[in-house]
Amino acid sequence: MTDPAPVHPRAAPPRTAFLLAQLGADAADRFAERVAELGLTPRDAGAIRVLGRSPGISQRELATRLGTTPSRIVPLLDSLEQRALVERSRSERDRRNYELSLTGTGQALLAPLRTIAEAHQREVLAALTPEEQVQLAALLAKLSSGGRLLPDAHPGYAAQSIDAPAS
Q1: Which residues share a beta bridge with 58?
Q2: Which pLDDT belongs to residue 158?
Q3: CATH no. for residue 48?
Q4: In terms of residue numbers, what domain contains 64?
Q5: Is 134 among the domain residues?
Q6: CB 52 within 8 A of CB 102
Q7: What's the pLDDT score for residue 144?
């Protein structure tokens, strides 16, 4: 029997990528449970958050920020519009495009979404000291940037269908 190959003392321990995936999936599942209490999916919450920060953006820009295609964003917007959370209006600058904005009902969800996100972050990071939380955030931001990930896009947005509204 041969001995396992020595691990360089500065190399990442085995399973680091798996642990990141495991923690990410768990955090995503817990976030989905939390926003479901508001009648939203994580995708709904992401769109509402982006539109709260950037009212008047186009459907194409929202799709880009969420990391999906324009054709996949249409069912999401249809669902949000049917629930009176988002409204589309023709752009004054380019009549071929729609500008998106939150309705009053959609705006009213921003504060509870922020509360949910803050509670979620506290729970996910509870095992770490404040200093470790800052260090982890910096390291994850470095990995995200190195992977050319978009700040508002969740990889699951592009991979999953958007046509199932929250129940």
Answers
A1: 99
A2: 54
A3: 1.10.10.10
A4: 23-124+153-159
A5: no
A6: yes
A7: 86
Number of structural domains found in the chain: 1
H-helix or E-strand spanning residue 101: strand 98-102
Q: What is the arithmetic mean of pLDDT over 48-71?
A: 91
CA nearest neighbour of 21 among 155, 133, 152: 155
**11 within a domain of the structure (yes/no):** no
**pLDDT range class, residue 148, cuts 50, 70, 90:** confident
Total length of the chain: 167
Contact 44, 35 (CB under 8 A): yes
Q: Is residue 77 part of a domain?
A: yes
Classify residue 166: in a domain, yes or no. Answer: no
Beta-carbon contacts of residue 13 (< 8 Å; ≥ 6 apart): 7
Are the CB atoms for 32 and 41 separated by under 8 Å? yes
54 vs 57: CA distance, rounded Å: 6
- At 8 the pLDDT is 58
pLDDT value of position 56: 93
Please check whether residue 79 is in contact with residue 165, taking contact to mean a CB–CB distance below 8 angstroms: yes
